[in-house]
Request: fold
Amino acid sequence: MKILFIVDDFGGGAGNVIQILANEFVRRGNDVKVLLLNYHTENNRLNEKVSVIRHTISSKNVKNKLIWLKNTTKELRQIIIKSNPDVVISFLDNNNTLTGLSLMFDKIPLIVSERSNPIVIKPKGFWRILRIPAYLRADAVTVQCSNFVRFNRLFSRKTLVTPNPIVKPTLEKVMPQVNSDEVRLISCGRLAPIKRFDLMIRAFYKINKNFPNTKLYIYGEGSERGVLEKLIQDLSLNDKVILAGRTDDIYSVLNNSDIYVMTSEQEGFPNALSEAMAVGLSSVAFECHEGLRDLIDDGKNGFLVPPGDIGLMAERVCYLIENINLRNTFSVKSKEVSRKFSVGSVCDLWEELIIDVRGASKL
Reply:
């Protein structure tokens, strides 16, 4: 079977998931290509059998939106037709819209995948209007969490859940029987306003008052670094909160930590949280949407906290620091998540969906 994935870049969560899926589908004997619409990031994680098509969407005639749209969809259709796929799978809303419009009068099976919370994060301007015919053209729409399925009643009958795959960790946390000299809290993500690392740092200020042996490590880069550095300085946490930058060895970093915290204002299926749970870290997260319950069963394998409640966030983390036996229990149950959302299990879901849409397109 010939599969064509479409995404803007290898960077970010969507690009990472496509690489995982592409590698697994190649392993299963399929012919896989990845079309990048805005290529920037070098990549070393793709199987050599996966073909990569690099295409930059032109900015010419961008002032005349109709001309730009006509030219862009024409170019995209030509690339897709030349690839001769059995199925096209597009990630991210604007990519999905362009792909749906470009294949409006073709019978190639098309799956479009939302990669954030589509209930809250919606296309803007003319993208919002164009998404309707594009998604109606698609044979299936996928979302990351169960509560996203009815994000738009026009597509709800053909909307299904395909969660992110969790790669089996190279390391798993061996829980200590007593706290070490330093208790490490960790979080990972872009240093962007939507991640609300400012609230995390303020919550940590409360935690550190009770447990001076704690440190917070935040991995990632972004536009908020300067703002966060100033906040750290203002709270006199310079030697307690470390903005550690990017890492290429996430599982090693997670394995050397004790508790994972997440304060995001919005998430789709949070990759970093799922990776932390797969390693066996206890987690405390803002419940930015009900779909997080697909990962965290509150009080059973972690804690969910109402968004913005830094007091309860601090309280839950302190409780875990004090109760190492509970952390051990959470650790065991958190690892079960990686089995539920294993690469093989998630690819099985995609494979079933592909078979369904290919069958439907022949009717």
The chain has a mean pLDDT of 92. The two ends are 19 Å apart (CA to CA). The chain has eleven helices and 13 strands. The first helix runs from residue 12 to 27.
